[in-house]
Amino acid sequence: MDRAPIPNHQQLAANIKIWGAELGFQQVGITDTELSLAEARFNDWLQKGFHGEMSYMARHGNKRSRPAELEPGTRRIISVRLDYLPEPTRKSREILESPAQAFISRYALGRDYHKLMRKRLQKLAQKISGEIGDFGYRVYVDSAPVLEKPLAEKAGLGWIGKHSNLINRKAGSWFFLGEIYTDLPLPIDQPASNHCGSCRACLDICPTQAIVEPYVVDARRCISYLTIEQHGPIPESLRSRIGNRIYGCDDCQQVCPWNRFAKLGREQDFAPRNGLGNATLTELFEWDETNFLKRTEGSAIRRIGHQSWLRNIAVALGNAPHSENIEAILKVREHDPAELVREHVRWALARQRSKSPD
């Protein structure tokens, strides 16, 4: 029986990077499975309880930091980067400075990236298979216990900054990551070196001081966690600091000096949909559940559900300058069927009334 020739792994690695670029990835790197340092840091983070309600972060033991335990036979990880910035960051800052508008993290304005990247990575794996025959692999896009940022750092895609996001010297941090775990003994790339230096812009800008020390984020204080991962009430002590951010927070990326090199993403699927890039809080608060599900179809936003959507917007409305229109809109949901919504509406109404000139 004819067998595929034994591949030249050096050439194959070079070809993988070419094929990745042809599929739209801005960068492809390759690394091994050694993550002992990242494992120690991750376990310390868990022990301090910084993961909050994200119990899934601790659910799989060491599989997250030991790729061969998650996918037996794994010898290398192919790590990829896909830029997504949908608009100049000055527009984001303008929205944050307009308290009547709704700020949504820029990654969530368009189509959910998971399916798009997974399909692209699957095509890359199929391209490799077409070249060398069957091989062992598995594709991941934030879909399993994977330490994607330490892997990407080791693969040379960038370094983990003090805000815990990956930073690339030529592209900033506005990008998604994905991986192919494989049994191929490919040559590995040089890890990226850290270039944060003495800068602490991200620590100083964080509205809730969630970056408790360089490279360590207490998720329980992070606005992205509070508006997306937190299922119950948002702690009252943090609500006023959320401002008009109703889904995620990009402050630490917006202020990072390396993002002056960031380029706008090329993917039309990541462009803002349904006016979410420039919507007001009041118009979004009026969405019923049917409208919410329709307008967020194919979006990462849908996964938080309508109740958390209203909870988040109620907090932002409470933070807005006093307005009789806002009070009236909040009163409509004062007797919402969900206690989660009612409780945050009551808080928002009290905040609005406390600012009333009467």
UniProtKB/TrEMBL annotation:
GO terms for biological process: tRNA queuosine(34) biosynthetic process. [4Fe-4S] cluster 1 binds at C196, C199, C202, C256. The active site is at D142. It catalyses: epoxyqueuosine(34) in tRNA + AH2 = queuosine(34) in tRNA + A + H2O. Cob(II)alamin binds at R64, D142, L166, L177, S224, C249, D250. Pathway: tRNA modification; tRNA-queuosine biosynthesis. Its main location: cytoplasm. Binds 2 [4Fe-4S] clusters per monomer. The keyword Ribosomal protein does not apply. One of its GO terms (molecular function) is epoxyqueuosine reductase activity. Residues 184-216 form the 4Fe-4S ferredoxin-type domain. Its cofactor is cob(II)alamin; [4Fe-4S] cluster. Keywords: 4Fe-4S, Cobalamin, Cobalt, Cytoplasm, Iron, Iron-sulfur, Metal-binding, Oxidoreductase, Queuosine biosynthesis, tRNA processing. InterPro entries: 4Fe4S_Fe-S-bd, 4Fe4S_Fe_S_CS, QueG, QueG_DUF1730. Its EC number is 1.17.99.6. One of its GO terms (cellular component) is cytoplasm. PANTHER family: EPOXYQUEUOSINE REDUCTASE (PTHR30002). This is Epoxyqueuosine reductase. It comes from endosymbiont of Escarpia spicata.
